[in-house]
């Protein structure tokens, strides 16, 4: 019986398998650099559309109220025409309301309290793609990637977490960084965590099949 020689077939097959394995590893990882450490991520909170504001006028219950910030960034108050709230700090808005009320009230003292937080678009963190609940999140001081992923419910079954990208605007220019969400969420590798900055966008792609 003639012996079959498979060496001419096996070797090319092994080479092809090695190439495919390398391509698979490359497809599952991100070649972008990791996000830089944000040394001071604290920022002064500014009011955004969708926030709920408590307006308190000292010794004047009739003028005290709770109002939503409309999509146009303005609010409506008794005795005052529409006033812009979005983009201002609560202290700045308090001062503007006091200036308007001086026409009707002697020495008004106004306090603005933000009851529910959304923040302006420039201070939100957006998570898009293969997150369980993609959405915009209000930025919080020292917020991390892990915080954001908890709020969006983690990854979908189709997500390729280690190919995720973080897009950040620095001095008016966009920069992209690689994230290792699978390592962070599935393996608990905290070295894959990163601090976020206001305006960051996390993009989670679908896995290759």
Q: Secondary-structure map with pairings?
A:
Blueprint: H1 7-28, E1 52-57, E2 65-68, E3 74-77, E4 80-84, H2 90-101, E5 110-116, E6 124-129, E7 135-138, H3 145-151, E8 165-170, E9 173-178, H4 181-185, E10 201-204
Parallel strand pairs: 6-10
Antiparallel strand pairs: 1-2, 1-5, 3-4, 6-7, 8-9, 8-10
Q: Descriptors for this entry?
A:
209 residues; three-stranded antiparallel beta sheet; wza like fold; 2 domains; five-stranded mixed beta sheet
Structure notes:
The protein is built from 4 helices and 10 strands. The protein is an alpha+beta fold. It folds into 2 domains: 52-116, wza like fold; 120-209, Outer membrane lipoprotein wza fold like (Roll). Strands 7-6-10-8-9 form a 5-stranded mixed beta sheet, covered by helices on one side. It has a 3-stranded antiparallel beta sheet with strand order 2-1-5, covered by helices on one side. A two-stranded antiparallel sheet has the order 3-4.
């Amino acid at each position: 019986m003639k012996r079959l020689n498979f060496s001419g077939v096996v070797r090319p097959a092994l080479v092809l398998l090695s190439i495919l394995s390398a391509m698979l590893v490359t497809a599952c990882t991100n070649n972008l650099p990791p996000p830089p450490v944000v040394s001071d991520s604290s920022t002064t909170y500014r009011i955004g559309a969708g926030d709920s504001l408590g307006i308190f006028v000292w010794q004047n219950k009739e003028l005290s109220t709770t109002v939503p910030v409309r999509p146009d960034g303005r609010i409506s108050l008794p005795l005052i025409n529409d006033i812009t709230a979005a983009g201002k700090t609560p202290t700045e808005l308090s001062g503007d309301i006091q200036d308007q009320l001086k026409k009707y009230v002697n020495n008004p003292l106004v306090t603005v309290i933000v009851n529910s937080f959304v923040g302006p678009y420039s201070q939100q963190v957006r998570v898009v793609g293969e997150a369980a609940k993609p959405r915009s999140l209000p930025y919080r001081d020292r917020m991390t990637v892990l915080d954001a992923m908890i709020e969006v419910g983690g990854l979908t079954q189709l997500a390729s977490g280690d190919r995720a990208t973080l897009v950040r605007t620095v001095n008016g220019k966009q920069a992209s960084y690689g994230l290792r969400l699978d390592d962070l969420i599935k393996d608990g590798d905290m070295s894959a965590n990163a601090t976020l900055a206001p305006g960051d966008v996390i993009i989670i792609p679908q896995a290759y099949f």
